[in-house]
């Protein structure tokens, strides 16, 4: 009986063939070069760690999305990484604990989740980004927003827009200005996320209704948010948003949705989502957060960072990649000349047999009499 499924891949996983792999490498190299030029040093992390390490370093990590299995050596539970940010946080708290702050780190690698997001079945994605550890000041947040924009532009994205949010908005308001009973807070957050005015009133959050209208282009939305903040509880956050917007003004279109929390499970006072023209959905998220300390240490360490998930951009760029410019080298070709041609940028494909067809092998030129001849 013929085995018909031996080459199948699990749902949500796939290969990158040469064109897409080349686009992926271009995106990765361009973004990491930008980060390196701003002083962000590259770190690399293992694809598998102890589950406890991945799940306990940062508040809000969704353990239910992580592949888990038992390590036959230690008999402890292992996890396949679903987010490199938590691993960078571990590095900062352990191997680089004595390094000077603020600590600037960058990374890139594949991450895997048990299931995709919403209607998107993809379960493995490229994640790349940067973390600035030791502060969550406005200046640090502004630097990371600027870097996320610059990295995507260098990678080939155009028409970039950034949506700001305040992940701890409800917590800040209900602590003093607009008190809520403990059992109501979750429902109010949920209705704000859903932009459900009727549900918000039913949940006891009628006083929060103006937040549903402090949404849209930044300049308009921030004025509405400031008008809503009559008691001044949000004054420092509003001032911070204005400062960040001033820093990035002109490099991207800016919007504000102050109550948005989806995707900001471990962010603290500031978060942002980044988009690009022609790309469906978000290309990345970032914001401020805290790295949890050792047992008994509840203060941890402030940090700010962003993660980009550029697979949709890679798909677009792969479709726009120019045809490969490759030079076919016949048997017995001049090796010194071939070396010189490669040193100035030519890709060469050497014949291994008299019957090799340069066009079938994807070549655009052929080396004849010391010259590259168009096929």
Tally of separate helices: 11
Query: What fraction strand?
Result: 15-25%
- The value of Rg in angstroms is 25 Å
Number of strands: 16
Mean pLDDT: 91
Low-pLDDT runs? none
- Largest sheet data: 9 strands, mixed
Order of helices and strands: HEEHEEHEEHEHHHEHHEEEEHEHEEE
* Widest sheet, order of strands: 1-5-6-12-11-10-7-9-8
- The amount of helix comes to 25-40%
Which of globular, elongated, flat, extended, rod-shaped describes the shape?
A: elongated
Structural class: alpha+beta
Q: What is the straight-line distance between the termini?
A: 46 Å
SSE layout:
Elements: H1 18-37, E1 41-42, E2 48-50, H2 51-56, E3 68-70, E4 77-80, H3 84-93, E5 103-112, E6 124-133, H4 138-155, E7 161-165, H5 169-174, H6 182-194, H7 197-202, E8 216-217, H8 218-228, H9 235-248, E9 253-256, E10 267-275, E11 284-291, E12 301-308, H10 311-320, E13 326-329, H11 335-343, E14 347-350, E15 365-368, E16 371-374
Parallel strand pairs: 1-5, 7-9, 13-14, 13-15
Antiparallel strand pairs: 2-4, 3-4, 5-6, 6-12, 7-10, 8-9, 10-11, 11-12, 15-16
Helix pairs in contact: 1-4, 1-10, 4-9, 8-9
């Amino acid at each position: 009986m013929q085995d018909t499924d031996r080459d199948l891949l699990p749902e949500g996983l796939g290969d990158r063939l040469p064109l897409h792999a080349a686009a992926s490498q271009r995106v990765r190299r361009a973004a990491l070069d930008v980060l390196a030029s701003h002083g962000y040093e590259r770190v690399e992390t293992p694809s598998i760690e102890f589950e406890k390490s991945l799940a306990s370093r940062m508040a809000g990590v969704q353990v239910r999305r992580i592949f888990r299995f038992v390590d036959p050596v230690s008999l402890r539970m292992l996890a396949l990484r679903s987010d490199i940010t938590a691993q960078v946080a571990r590095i900062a708290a352990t191997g680089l604990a004595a390094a000077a702050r603020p600590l600037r780190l960058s990374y890139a690698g594949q991450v895997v989740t048990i299931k995709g997001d919403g209607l998107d079945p993809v379960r493995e994605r490229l994640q790349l980004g940067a973390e600035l550890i030791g502060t969550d000041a406005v200046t640090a947040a502004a630097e990371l927003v600027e870097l996320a924009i610059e990295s995507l532009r260098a990678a080939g994205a155009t028409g970039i827009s950034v949506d700001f949010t305040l992940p701890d908005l409800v917590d800040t308001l209900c602590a003093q200005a607009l008190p809520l009973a403990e059992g109501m807070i979750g429902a109010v957050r949920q209705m704000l996320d859903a932009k459900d005015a009727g549900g918000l009133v039913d949940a006891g959050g009628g006083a929060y209704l103006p937040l549903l209208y402090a949404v849209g282009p930044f300049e308009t939305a921030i004025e509405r948010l400031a008008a809503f903040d009559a008691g001044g509880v949000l004054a420092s956050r509003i001032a911070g948003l204005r400062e960040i917007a001033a820093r990035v003004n002109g490099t991207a279109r800016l919007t504000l949705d102050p109550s948005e929390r989806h995707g900001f499970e471990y962010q603290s006072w500031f978060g942002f989502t980044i988009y690009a023209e022609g790309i469906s959905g978000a290309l990345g998220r970032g914001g401020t957060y805290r790295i949890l300390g050792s047992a008994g240490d509840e203060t941890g360490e402030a940090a700010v960072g962003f993660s980009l998930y550029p697979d949709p951009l890679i798909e677009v760029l792969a479709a726009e990649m120019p045809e490969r410019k490759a030079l076919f080298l016949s048997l017995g070709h001049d090796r010194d000349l071939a070396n010189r041609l490669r040193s100035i940028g030519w890709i060469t494909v050497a014949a291994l047999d008299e019957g090799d067809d340069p066009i079938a092998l994807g070549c655009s030129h052929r080396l004849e009499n010391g010259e590259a001849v168009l096929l």
